[in-house]
Amino acid sequence: MTQAPAPVLPPEAFQRRLLAWHDRHGRHDLPWQHDRSPYRVWVSEIMLQQTQVATVIPYFTRFIARFPDVAALAAAEQDEVLHLWTGLGYYARGRNLHKAAREIVAHHAGELPLDVEALSELPGIGRSTAGAIVAQSSGRRAVILDGNVKRSLARLHAVEGWPGRPAVARRLWALAEHYTPHERLADYTQAMMDFGAILCRRGTPDCASCPFDDVCVAHARGEQRRFPESRPKKALPTRTTRMLLLQDAEGRVLLERRPASGLWGGLWSLPQFDDQAALRAWLDQHAPCSTLAPSWSPFTHVFSHFRLEITPQPARVRRLDSVGEARRWYDPDNPDSLGLAAPVKSLLTSLATFTLTAPDP
């Protein structure tokens, strides 16, 4: 791997340019910037992982209204936490947020520890997120290296290699450390994230408006889109599943809780089966008086590591005497506060069509 050049600007000059841009063009009115408590910053940083600001804002507002502090979040049931997370995706973030809140109450007297190392030991908080929480809520010096910062520094210095490789990550962390100031830490941290999101964005960066266009190595080479290098691509495998939309005589739908880990961990989903034979065998055992309607057209839900082809299978049953502890009836007209996987939530909203077309048993 070709070694990247030395820092292109002294730290003071870099900070001066960045903060001048941020003062004029950065984001200063985000919900978590008002009352920048460690808790509010923490919640926002977790929600912002792999999710755009515009998407996060309404979720953050609803979440904070229901869980205004660590104690309220720790006291909640996981179902309610995941219900407020429904649609935001990457549900492990919500589970870890809830788990971390309980650890904070149990081991830190209900206060987030404003120390990068201690924060990093909590579920769902990595080194960069811990740095952002410390810097933005306390003003103490802490370094961040989220996706926006990686992209900006990789272009500025033409850092070769995929940032997921340890040697490349070490180089980027060293650059982030080099440029991080000792003053205005909250502004600097926000500025670095905003700079990557607004100017040095993925795909087509706005180099004409960039305060570093005269010193950016990738720009000088005309290779902005080459940096940072992408993860080596692998073809996404496709998995298939059949989801059972089983309604009783009252129009309620049978749901089951997913295992704590794995796909949609801890969320409520429709019963899933590998194939139609397995689905029919389950019905024969648990709901022998059920009637199948024609299957709905399959659709695909894309995850980061695979594609899931889902075939919905509607069915009707007059009664089901026992559904077990991990299952429950769900009334779409009077929905409970449950965490639902996005495609399941979408299917439940489509049940009006099914109700009109499915044959009665």
TrEMBL record:
Cofactor (UniProt): [4Fe-4S] cluster
Xref: Pfam families: HhH-GPD, NUDIX_4
InterPro entries with a match to the protein in the record: A/G_AdeGlyc_MutY, DNA_glycosylase, HhH-GPD_domain, HhH_base_excis_C, MIG/MutY, MutY_C, NUDIX_hydrolase-like_dom_sf
Protein origin, superkingdom: Bacteria
Enzyme class of the recorded protein, top EC level: hydrolase
SMART domains: ENDO3c
Classification via PANTHER family: ADENINE DNA GLYCOSYLASE
Free-text cofactor note: Binds 1 [4Fe-4S] cluster.
Entry's family note: Belongs to the Nth/MutY family.
Gene3D superfamilies recorded: Helix-hairpin-Helix base-excision DNA repair enzymes (C-terminal), Hypothetical protein, domain 2, Nucleoside Triphosphate Pyrophosphohydrolase
Residue ranges annotated for the HhH-GPD domain, each copy included: 47-198
Keywords on record: 4Fe-4S, DNA damage, DNA repair, Glycosidase, Hydrolase, Iron, Iron-sulfur, Metal-binding
Catalytic activity: Hydrolyzes free adenine bases from 7,8-dihydro-8-oxoguanine:adenine mismatched double-stranded DNA, leaving an apurinic site
Protein name from the UniProt record: Adenine DNA glycosylase
Summary of the function given for this chain in its UniProt record: Adenine glycosylase active on G-A mispairs. MutY also corrects error-prone DNA synthesis past GO lesions which are due to the oxidatively damaged form of guanine: 7,8-dihydro-8-oxoguanine (8-oxo-dGTP).
EC number: 3.2.2.31
